[in-house]
Design brief:
Strand order of the largest sheet: 4-3-2-6-5-1-11-12
Bound molecules: aspartic acid
Strand content: 15-25%
Oligomer: single chain
Structural class: alpha+beta
Number of helices: 10
Order of helices and strands: EHHEEHEHHHHEEEEHHHEEEE
Length: 307
Amino acid sequence: MKNFGIIVHGGAGKHINKNQAKEGVKVACERGYEILKSGGNAVDAVCAAIVEMENNPYFNAGFGAALTATGGVELDASIMDGKTLRFGAVAAISNFKNPILIARKVMERTDHVLLVGKGAEEFALLEGFKKVNLVSEERLKLYFKILDGEKEEFKKEMSKTLKWIREKYGIFAGSTVGACAVDESGNIVSGTSTGGIFFKLDGRVGDTPCPGCGTYANYACAASATGLGEAIMRVTLTKFVCDKVIEGISPYEACRKGIENLEKLTGGKAGVIAISTNLEFGYYMNTDSMPVAFIRNGYKKVKIEGI
Ligand code: ASP
């Protein structure tokens, strides 16, 4: 029998509204699984799961994404096919609801790996994507609450204050989304989408669109990471995890080693999920929570863990 399965995450961090987080990853996982069950491919399944979460304002991706230091939205997303090592990504794009679908177009319709900013937005428009407003009321309220509270500090030195705000409020990250799937033909794919860290400087790009950092897949494993991008990038977390699986380690052990290594070397906080071509799942985080949902053929229903 041919096997297939999918695992999704809703970001490493602290999830206060646990029910919303759990329901969000469950529904996304079901969307992806429906595609795999009807013989669809892993790229479609990963995109469907991620689009579901990008459209859900709870998550830090698409509509409702975290705001930058100047109150804007800058999104990063990527997708990778493990069999062919094709990779497509966009970084620092504003006003597009489903960056994962634009990343997919970069992978499928160009010979590039990563498009950023204005060029990426022009490419998206040419491909027929529409501009929309992505700033949610909830995110804006939080933004102004912080700004109001820190008015005096801002007058002193802006860049130091921004750093300090991030440390003080601990909203370094959270609720980024990702999915990894294997289809019945053995294609193995990973994708990740995020608004990045709250109060990031304009132009900051994190791990999500960088190969081997937020997203990676090879013939044996697909992995998607979340958490402090600056730490994930320094240890190329998802490449580390996928390489460990090639060495014969289980996805769970590979994720655990990946996060332990990241913590030891950078002191950062993060989480990672993985699936192997032989349909084993793994995830690990050193944050408070990371909602994870997974299912493969043979399971009666989606399993939800990590929260
Ligand atoms: N990794 C993302 C970034 O640093 C944030 C997150 O996962 O919440 O851009």
